[in-house]
Amino acid sequence: MNNTNKFQELRQKSGGRKQRLLAGAAGAAVAFTFIAAPAFAQDAGAAEEEYEAPIIVTGSRIVRDGYDAPTPLSVISGEEINTEAPANISDFVNTLPAVSGSQNGGTNSGSLSSSNAGINALNLRDLGSNRTLVLLDGRRSVTSSAAGLVDVNTFPQSLIERVEVVTGGASAAYGSDAVSGVVNFVLDRDYQGFKANYEYGVTTYGDVPNHKIELTGGASLLDDRLHIIASGEFFTQEGVDTIDRDWNTHTFMVNNPYYAAGNGQPERIWADGIGEAILSPGGLITSGPFRGTYFGAIDPGTGLATLGEFAYGATTGRYTIGGDYLLEDEHFGSNSLAPHEERIGLFGRIGYEITPDVELFAQVSWNQYEGQSFYQQTPSSATIQLDNPYLPQSFVDMVNDYNATAAPADQVSSISIGTSNAGIPAAGSDNKRVVERYLVGAEGSLDVLGGLDWDISYQMGRADLDQQLTNTWLNSRMNAMTDAVYDGGGNIVCRVNIDGNPNNDLPGCVPINRIGIGGVTDEAVDYLFQLTPFRNQVVKQEVAAFNLSTNSLFDIWAGPVSLALGGEYRKETLDSTLDPLQYEQTWLYGNYREDDGSYNVKEAYIETIVPLFDGADFNGAFRITDYSSSGTVYTYKLGLTWQVIDAIKLRGTYSRDIRAGNLLDLFASGTARTNSISRPILDSNGNVTGVSVSDQFVQSATGNPQIDPEKADTIGLGVVFTPGFLPGFAFSADYFKIDLSDAIGSLSAEQAVLFCYEQKVEEQCLNIEYEGGQRFSTGRNLDVLTIDLPVFNFASQKVSGVDFEASYRTPLGPGDLALRAVASHYIENVSDDGFSYPTDTAGATLPSWSYRLTASYDYNGFRTTIVGRGFDDGVIDNAYVVCSVNCPASSPDARTVNNNYRAGSFYLDTNFVYEFEVAGVAAQAKFAVKNVLNKDPYVFGYGTIGGNNTAAYPRTDRGLYDTLGRTFRLGVSFEY
C-alpha cells in the first residue's frame, strides 16, 4: 500500500520531480504502449488522471507536464505483472512484439564455455541483447557475464512499479548499447507496509515445478524524512534434463544425397525419418571393411557386447534418411528442456530528506544464482585397438579371418567408432553467479531557472562468476582409459601404465569400456570426471554520474525552453582465475582461458526541448563519448512532435547511436569448444561436389582490442489518434528503420567453412587448420582440426517495420473493461557480413507479424485477463528456392530445398486475481494458465546441417515456439 507522505506531496507540487527523474531514464521510445491500467505515453495528461499520484513517462531526460516525446513509450504496470504471475520478469517482457530473440535458461543451456547458461537477457528488434540497454531506475547495472549480458532476474521483482520499454536509438540520451532501445525497470521507492507472496508453477505434464517466495517491506520514519524499503526473493525450479516431449520427432534439414549440379534435384531436403549414421549408443564402426557394425547391449552371459549391423538408408554427411535412423536415441533430444535453478535476491534502499528539497540515498542489492543444465549426451569418436579386452571375441574372430586373406596394407589392427557414450552422463554446466550492486547519491531541486532538478550518484557493481562444467573430460585421460589391455596377470589395465614408457604413466588410471551398452562402471565414471574444467571470472563496473534538468531555462515566442545536461565516468574490468591444469590440457568442452582487461568511458550530453509554435516541439540531444579502447565518438538525436488537432499527433525522430565492444569482444583470449562441422568434398578442380563429411574439430573464439564502435542511424515516424468522440480510445502507428554499420561479431564455424569451400574467401580459409597443422588459402579434402573465429567489424544490418497499438477502456456493467492490441510488422531485417550474400530474416526466424491481444475485466475485487499472442506463418530462410523436380541451379544465395515452410502460432493465456481480506489484512489469490490450449511447437528441420549438437537440440525454434506446453501458476499474497 502506498501512503502519500510529506516528501510525496512536495514532489507533486513541484511537478513530480522525483518520479520524472526516474521516468526519464527510459531513453528514446517505442511505438506501442502496453499496460492493463491506461497509462498512455502518447497522452501523459490522460495517464495522470488514472493514477492517485502523477506518473509521467516520456523516454527523454527532460520531462514537463503535457509534453509527449517524438517517439512513443511502452509501459508495463506492476499490476499487470502481478496478475500474470510470471516465474521471472523476463518471461513477461519477452511476450511483447518488439522483444525478439531474447536469451533465457531454456534457450542458452548450450552456452557452456561462455558461462551464459541461465541468464535472462532481453533483446529488442532481434538485433542482439548487447544492443539493448537495460537500466534499473534509470541507471546501468553490472552485467552477469563477460559478454555484457544483464540478467534481469537480479532486479527486485516485488518492488517493480513499472517497466518502460523503448525501441529505437537512445545513445544520445543514455550512452552506448542503446542501439535497438532501452528497457528501464522502475522501482516503487516510496512503498510503505509489508507484503508476502508465494507462487507455485508446474506444467500440464507434471514437470518443471517451481516455487517463488517474496517478502517486501517499507517504512517512513522521523516525520517521513527517512524512508526504508527492503525485499527478499527465493526461487527454485526442478528442471527437465532432456527434450522430454512427444512432438520432438526425427525431423532434420540435410544435404540431399541424390543432388548433383544440374540434375534437377533440390540441394537440401528436410523431412521426418532422419537420424544419425555415424554413431550409436554403444559404438558404431564408421570406416574400413567393418563399417556399419555396431555394438549393442552387454550380454550378461559373456559380459561383452552383442553385435548388430546398421541398416543404412540414403546417407548424407552424418545423417541417414530412413534405415536405422532411430538407433541413436541416446543422443537425440539430450539437451535440457528446462534448467535446474535456484535464485536468492536481496535488496535494500534508504533515503533521507535532509531538507525538503534534498534527499540523500543509498542502495544495495545482492543476488545469487545457481543453475545446472545439460548441453547434450556427448557424441565423440574413439580408436579401439584390436587387443582391447572389451571387444567381443566374435568380432575379433571376424577381424582375424579378414586379416588372414587381406593384403598387409589393408589389414586391420584398430577400429574407429562413433559413439554417444551410453553410460557416461550428459555434459553440461553447473554455474554459480553472485551479483552485487552498491549505489550512493543525492538528488534534489533548486529554485532557480524555473526549477532546476539535479542528481549525482556513484555505484559499484561486481559479478563473481564461478564457471564449472560437469561431465566433460580431459581428452588425454579419456584416451588413456579407452586404450585398455590385459596385463600379465589377466587384469584389465590402461596401456599407458604398462607400455614401458614412464613419461606417459597415469597413476590410478581406471580402464573404461566404451564397447556396447551397460559396460561403463561407476569407478570409471568417477575417475574420468575426477578433474573438470573450472574458471572464476570477476566483472566489475564503477559509474559516477550527474544530471541537471530544467523545464524553463528561458521563454521564447512559443513557450519555455527546456534543457538537460550531464556527464558520466564508467570503468569496466574483467579478471579471470583458472585451475593451473587448464594451461596444460585439452578438454572436450570448457577450454577456458584467462580473459583479462579493462577499459573506461568518459561522456557528456546535452538535451533540449524547444517549442516551435502552439502544439509543436523540437527535441534534440547530443553526446560526446570517449572510450579508452577505441577513441571518441559522437551521438545525437533530432525529434519533432506536432499536435495537428486535438485528436491527431504526428511525431518523428532521427538519431545516431553506437555500441562499443564489451569486455569479451575486446579481451577474449581464445576459449575453445569441441563441435562437428559438415565439410564439403571438393573435386579435382577445387569445387564442391555436393557430398560432405562430418569432421570433429575445436573452434576458438578470440577478442580484438582494435575493434571500432558500431554505428546505427535510426528513423522513426508516427501518428497518434485519440478521438474525442470515443473517450478512452487511443491508436498509434509508428514506422521505424535502423541502419547498423561496422557491426561487431564473429562468423559461425559453419559460415567459415562454407565461405572457404563454396566461395573461396581466402581470409576464412586461413582461419581453418587441417591435420598436420596445415592452413591453405582454399579448402582441402583433409580433416579439419581447428577453426579460428575472431571478433571484428564486418557486418551491416538494416531493420525496418511498423508498430501498431490500439487501446480502449470503458465502464461495462458493474465493472471496467480494458482492451489492448499491440502488433509489430517487420518489413526487413537484412544482414550483410561482407563475405556472402545479404540475408533477410524478416518473415523467417523473425516473424513478419507478431502480436499480443489483451482483454481485462475488473469487478469488485475480481480481475480476469485473457491474452492472445502469436505470430504469422513464414519461411525457414528467405533465400531458399522451393522445388522438388526440375530445380534451377543451386547457389549459396539461392539454395534449392524441397520445403521452406514455417508455421505461425497462436497462444491463449488466462489470468485470474481475487482480492479479499483476512482478519483486517488485504489478501490476493492468483491463478494463471499459460498456453491454455497446450499447443505444441511446429517441428521442422531447424539447426545447422553438420553440428554434433543439432540432434540434441529440439527440432523447432524455441526462441519462437512454446516448448514446455500448458503451464499453471497458483499464488497467494498478503499485505498490510
Would you kindly provide a brief summary of this structure?
This protein has 976 residues and is mostly beta strands. Residues 67-182 form the TonB-dependent receptor plug domain.
Outline type = globular
- Largest sheet entry: 22 strands, antiparallel, barrel
Radius of gyration: 30 Å
The number of domains: 3
DSSP strand tally: 48
Overall pLDDT confidence: 88
Proportion in helices: under 10%
Catalogue the unreliable spans.
Answer: 1-58
What does the model show?
- Residues 455-917 form the TonB-dependent receptor-like beta-barrel domain.
- This is Vitamin B12 transporter BtuB.
- Residues 1-41 form the signal peptide.
- The chain has 976 residues and is mainly β.
- The protein has 3 domains: 6-243 and 338-375 and 429-469 and 535-668 and 703-746 and 791-975, TonB-dependent receptor, beta-barrel domain (Maltoporin, Chain A); 252-332 and 380-419 and 479-507, no CATH class; 669-702 and 747-790, no CATH class.
- It is 9% helix and 47% strand.
- It has 12 helices and 48 strands.
- The strands form 10 sheets. The protein has a 22-stranded antiparallel β-barrel.
- Strand 15 and strand 16 form a beta hairpin.
- The longest helix is centred in the middle third of the chain and has 13 residues, at 393-405.
- The radius of gyration is 30 Å and the shape is globular.
- The relative contact order is 0.13.
- Residues 1-58 have low confidence and may be disordered.
